[in-house]
Amino acid sequence: MKKIPWIIGFITVLALNAAANPPLPTGWWRATLQRADGHTIDFNVAMQYKNGKPLWFIRNATEKIQVTGIEQKQDSILVQMPLFESEFRLQQVNNNTLRGVWIKGTSSVTQVMPVTFVYNQSKRYPQAKQTKQKITGRWGATFIDGKKPYPAVVEFKQNGLALTGTVLTPTGDYRYLEGAVSNDTLHLSTFDGSHAYYFRATVKNDSVITDGEYFSGATSIEKWTAWRDEKAIVPDTLSAVYMKRGEDKLHFRFPDLDSNYVSMSDPRFQNKVVIVQLMGSWCPNCMDETAFLSDYYNKNKQRGIEMVALAYENSTDFHRSQKSLRRFQQRFNITYPMLITGVRAADSLRTEKTLPEITRIKMLPTALFFGRDGTVKRIHTGFYGPGTGEHYETFKKEFYSIMEDLLKQ
After folding, report:
1. What is the annotated signal peptide range for this record (predicted)?
2. How many Å apart are CA 1 and CA 111, to the nearest integer?
3. Helix, strand or coil for residue 268?
4. What count of other Cβ atoms lies within 10 Å of the Cβ of residue 268?
5. Which of 370, 250, 253 is nearest to 305 (CA)?
6. How many CB atoms lie within 10 A of CB 120?
7. How many helices (H) and strands (E) does the chain have?
8. Using the 8-state DSSP alphabet, how is residue 388 labeled?
9. Per-residue pLDDT tens over the stretch 151-199
10. More confident: 218 or 238
11. Confidence band of 238 (pLDDT split at 50, 70, 90)
12. What does the DSSP 8-state code read for residue 220?
């Protein structure tokens, strides 16, 4: 990640503050990310101490992201997120307030957003005393990215005024969302260190949602509407990837994290059922898929199963990619090879440069299933993770069925 001179100077000045600050109070804080257009993205953090060291838990509905990389010196606080090129640089204003910036590495410029943390705030959005709106269930939706609409499914779970849910799109899900219904307005947000999302909309009645806005990161904004439809689905034809005519194998050769080259012709993959995972360490859906795949592999590799991950990172710099992927590898106890393609995820020619045997890679993650004969049998695009509830359970059943069929062949 690029260094930002004014931020370095800012933190240096803070470190020179001679007055020792008392430990931060434990309990819930509300963090507010400030966008340039005046809108904010809020989330909640529980601050604790373990063996005298600070510990964070970032809450998104039922998800709790543990953060241990926290350093405090006088009133200067540096927080390194456990995954992604993501960190907070904060100043302790007083016992109840922190101010600073959230910094995230991307494929182009480094993204910087002002952030404020306020103590004793367990809710992220204001709640009215009551609401007549009841929106629990599945909704069909249309989002508009610029002028281009795309379909989605929104799922809500309302408990009084509290609201949780997720959004499923052709590329995957928006993970765990948390918020509230206040009068006729819904609020939902999430923060995982890579993505910061905020959804709001007007609940016209129990069947129609209008005037939706979806704020992502520092600048992105989309419009959306939704209608109650318990049978709503996301068409997977928008994201499908296929082998090109006449092709049934892959011929890649890329270095692993120790600079050793790996290819599908290596002995370890012969006569095995193999999954090739196309992913990136910057990608939250890839994180969820990797957590599942790594656990499955470690429990089943002795059955004649192999996996290999091909990483499309934010940079072509090997060492930058290696650093991010090492953290990813350690976080999920990945014992199969992770290869660095050397091609940026945002490269429009990433397919041609790495896997010319398949049609355009439309999204990450994508998983290719190989039989014992070394040919591709199935391709699965996108990933609906544990935040999607029944959709995640459906995926697991399908995955187990595919693997058992391949192992029998």
Report:
1. 1-20
2. 10
3. helix
4. 12
5. 370
6. 10
7. 5, 25
8. G
9. 999 999 999 899 999 999 988 899 999 999 988 899 999 999 999 999 9
10. 218
11. low
12. E
Whole-number CA gyration radius for the chain: 22
**pLDDT value at position 235?**
79
pTM, rounded to two decimals: 0.88
How are beta strands 338-340 and 305-311 bridged, if at all? parallel
CA–CA dist 287, 331 (Å, integer): 10
What is the C-alpha separation between 276 and 394, in angstroms, rounded?
Answer: 21
Looking at residue 239, the DSSP 8-state letter turns out to be: T
Of the pLDDT bands very low, low, confident and very high (cuts 50, 70, 90), residue 237 is low
DSSP per-residue codes, 290-342:
HHHHHHHHHHHGGGTEEEEEEE--S-S-HHHHHHHHHHHHHHTT--S-EEE--
Other CB atoms within a 10 A radius of the CB of residue 266 amount to 13
* The predicted structure's pLDDT at residue 239: 66
Domains and CATH numbers, the chain: 5-119 (2.40.128), 137-228 (2.40.128.120), 239-408 (3.40.30.10)
Q: Go through 23-41 and write b for each residue having 16 or more CB atoms within 10 A of its CB, e for each that does not.
A: ebeeebbbbebbbeeeebb
pLDDT tens readout for residues 103-113: 998 877 899 99
Whether residue 205 has pLDDT greater than 80:
yes
Which two structure tokens, joined as six digits, stand for 383? 């990933």
Instruction: Judge contact between 65 and 193, C-beta under 8 A.
Output: yes
Residues near 335 by beta carbon (within 8 Å), at least 6 away in sequence: 294, 297, 298, 301
Residue type, 175: R
What is the rounded distance in angstroms from the CA atom of residue 92 to the CA atom of residue 279?
37
Check whether the bond before 365 is cis (ω within 30° of 0): yes
- Three-state DSSP class for 193? coil
